[in-house]
Design brief:
Blueprint lengths: L4 E10 L4 E9 L2 E7 L3 H5 L4 E4 L4 E2 L3 E6 L4 E2 L2 E2 L4 H10 L2 E9 L6 H12 L6 E7 L5 H12 L5 E5 L8 E4 L1
Parallel strand pairs: 1-4, 1-5, 6-9, 9-10, 10-11
Antiparallel strand pairs: 1-2, 2-3, 7-8, 11-12
Length: about 170
């Protein structure tokens, strides 16, 4: 989706380092500039849309780096779907989730990641990425890891323990 230019004027902008009364210039989906509210630089900005944030906080969206949408575990499934879970996230100010994609035993990491992309595609209210749960560690799956990292998979998780144990200890790589 193409977004034009948006200016958010008059709010108290909260960054990782500061709080400042500033206007925010957004092009497309990216913040490209901050300038003091009322400054010549801020006043010169032209935009398709202007948002009045007077008496409001302007904060970046949050990232939830550990979610479980539609995750099968222990004979059950997580109650949230990508649709319901990301709608709730958006209402709470979370703009990105990192969910867990699962490799099925006997299948490749790629097949697991593709299955999770299929579940999420078109059903998310926010941006998303994936960690990868490795359920079948083989020479082939170990070789696949580099390819998935190049595509943005941020970490890999493997449960150590007997397959018939009720619980195992997770190891994140």
């Amino acid at each position: 989706m193409t977004h034009g230019r948006t200016v958010i004027r008059g709010g108290l902008v909260i960054t990782a380092a500061d709080e400042l009364h500033a206007d925010v210039l957004i092009e497309g989906e990216r913040v490209v500039a901050l300038a003091a509210t009322g400054s010549d630089a801020a006043q010169a900005w032209q935009a398709d849309r202007v948002v009045d944030a007077t008496d409001c906080y302007v904060i970046p969206g949050g990232v939830d780096a550990h979610t479980h949408m539609e995750l099968p575990f222990g004979g059950t499934f997580a109650s949230d779907t990508f649709e319901t879970g990301t709608r709730a996230a958006a209402f709470g100010g979370t703009t990105t989730i990192v969910d867990f994609a699962v490799q099925s035993v006997g299948h490749s990491l790629r097949e697991g990641l593709d299955a999770w992309h299929e579940k999420a595609q078109g059903n998310c209210a926010v941006d998303y990425g994936f960690h990868m749960i490795m359920s079948d560690v083989t020479e082939d799956s170990l070789k696949e890891m580099d390819l998935l990292v190049e595509e943005g998979v941020t970490s890999f998780k493997n449960f150590i323990g007997s397959r018939d144990q009720e619980s195992s200890s997770p190891v994140t790589v």
